[in-house]
Amino acid sequence: YGITNSWDEIVETLQGAPVIIDTELGGYIREFETRVRQDTNEIYMRLDDEQTERQLLAGRLNMLFRDRRAHAYTRQLIEKEARMYREAWVRATDTSDLVHGYVMSVEERDPVRTR
């Protein structure tokens, strides 16, 4: 057929090649394999870091959503307390004005008694 003869020629040519070329080629292949392995490991490490970062962000977001009700309740308590303080301040001011008016009226009626 002729195919066999071609293969025989290729094999004979390769067998006659110097050993140094095989050794150099093997060194290049090992170096290439090492680089590919290192690059692959680096890519996987970066992917793991990204996945870890995403998991942390997702956890924080979930925590914020879970705490949303507690924060809303705390906000309501603070607003209610502020409203109660304002009402107490208004009542205290009104009472003070009332007492001041009473003292003034007593002084006008009986100036000797108040001094």
In terms of topology, how is this protein built?
Layout: H1 3-15, H2 19-109, H3 111-114
Structure description:
It is a single chain. The longest helix has 91 residues. This protein has one domain. The protein is mainly α. It is built from three helices and no strands.
Keyword list:
about 120 residues
In short:
Helices cover 94% and strands 0% of the residues. The protein is mostly helical.
Q: Strand portion, in percent?
A: under 5%
**Alpha-carbon Rg, integer:** 46 Å
Low-confidence stretches: none
Q: How many discrete domains? A: 1
Number of helical segments with 4 or more residues: 3
Give the class from helix and strand content and strand pairing: mainly alpha
DSSP E strands, number? 0
The helix content, as a percent range, equals over 70%
Mean pLDDT, to the nearest integer, reads 81
How far apart are the first and last residues' alpha carbons, in Å? Answer: 141 Å
